[in-house]
Amino acid sequence: MRCQRCAAMFMVCAIVAMSLVIGVGSPLYAATYNWKLASVLPDSHPVHQALVAFAEKVNEKTNGEVVITVYPAGQLGQEKDYIEGAQLGSIEITKVSSAPLGQFSKTLQVVSLPFIWRNLEHQHLVLDGPIGERLMADLEASGFKGLAFFDAGSRNVTTSVRPIRTPDDMKGLKIRVMQSEPLIETINALGATAVPMGQSEVYVALQQKVIDGWENNEPTVLSFNMQEVAKYFSYTGHVSIPDILIMSKQIFDSASPEVQAAILEAAQETIPLQRQIWADYVGEATAQLKEKGMEFNEVDDITAFQALAAPIHKQFEPIVGADLIQAIMDAGK
């Protein structure tokens, strides 16, 4: 009888020990791959929802073999840190703007050129087609595996000083931009002074009047509460730079063919989801910003801004290729 009690006690202890190791509701086997997905956007941002969906899709398609943990709100640094981390393999996956990534893959700078997109449909047509495939392929030489382009709206000047109605209103203003040569040149061409700066520094810089404004889209303004320090939102629409989901090429190449296929499939399935989330949220974000006191205005004549920025296309021909610029401009005509 005593032996039976000992055996029963042993079984109970073994079950408890196993539950502590595995965890309630956890799969019996540990994941083969545990990867990080880094983003500077807070978890309240609509793009974050798409990143979570992507991670879940990969986990499902690999039957739990891949676990991706999303780190939002700049927990692992700024976008430059993520890009460099992906090159080194210390960060497996990241969502960044195509603008700073263009400093590492020159042809990608073409998507940051001013007024290169006629509308959102034109941008989708290009990025979903052969040109988008070429831009993704070009990333591989720099150590990245391109997974998906995401909508990020048009970027518009937001200031604490005055609304922007004409290029003259830009004069004398210091405007924060991402670290992107096309974006820097664009803001300078429009009459302001571009100030490259990490996202985490912008709020305080506006608050302390180190800068007079920045440029971004409505959801991002709301997510970072920028209406508190820059109340004027002017629809300059000078650039429309897509976000991009990338992976460290060395990490991607080290995965099994089955896992690689699952990642690419999950990324493609996430694209329409992200676009819908984005489209649904822009109007809601604008309404909330208005309720919080932000003032919106159209510019008087967008062609005046376009004329000032036009020479930048020529300036970047030696960098991205005149043929690539022309192919984008001609697409869908």
TrEMBL record:
TM helices/strands, residue ranges: none
InterPro entries assigned to the protein according to its UniProt record, in alphabetical order: DctP_fam, TRAP_DctP, TRAP_DctP_sf
GO (cellular component) term, any one: outer membrane-bounded periplasmic space
A Pfam entry, by short name: DctP
Molecular-function annotations in GO: carbohydrate binding
UniProt cross-references to CDD domains, sorted A to Z: PBP2_TRAP_SBP_like_3 (cd13671)
GO biological process: transmembrane transport
Designated name of the protein: TRAP-type C4-dicarboxylate transport system component
UniProt keyword terms in alphabetical order: Signal
